[in-house]
């Protein structure tokens, strides 16, 4: 109870605003997924153009 009283945002997890740390982690996970997708697209495009040049 003392831990929850010290951090009122954590008192009801899932029923309020995310902690700033958790929001940052969520944002970084989304950015990471987007960057991986872009990397895969570029990798496939490079392989396609290399295949055409041979």
Distance between the termini: 69 Å
- How big a fraction of the residues is strand? under 5%
Shape: rod-shaped
Class derived from helix and strand content: mainly alpha
On the 0 to 100 scale, the average pLDDT is 84
Cα-based radius of gyration, to the nearest Å = 21 Å
Q: Largest sheet, described in full?
A: none
Low-confidence stretches: none
Instruction: Determine the oligomeric state from the structure.
Output: single chain
Q: Please provide the count of β strands.
A: 0
Order of H and E elements: HH
Itemize the secondary structure elements and their pairings.
Blueprint (H helix, E strand, L loop, with lengths): L1 H5 L13 H34 L1
Kindly describe this structure.
The chain has a domain at 18-54. The chain has helices at 2-6, 20-53. The chain contains 2 helices and no strands. By secondary structure, the protein is an all-alpha fold. The mean pLDDT is 84. The chain is rod-shaped, with a radius of gyration of 21 Å.
Q: Which key phrases capture this entry?
A:
single chain, 54 residues, mainly alpha, 2 helices, 0% strand, rod-shaped
In short:
This protein has 54 residues and is mainly alpha-helical. The chain has a domain at 18-54. It has 2 helices and no strands.
């Amino acid at each position: 109870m003392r831990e929850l009283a010290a951090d009122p945002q954590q008192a009801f997890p899932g029923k309020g605003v995310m902690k700033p740390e958790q929001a940052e982690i969520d944002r970084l996970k989304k950015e990471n997924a987007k960057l991986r997708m872009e990397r895969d697209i570029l990798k496939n495009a490079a392989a396609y153009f290399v295949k055409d040049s041979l």
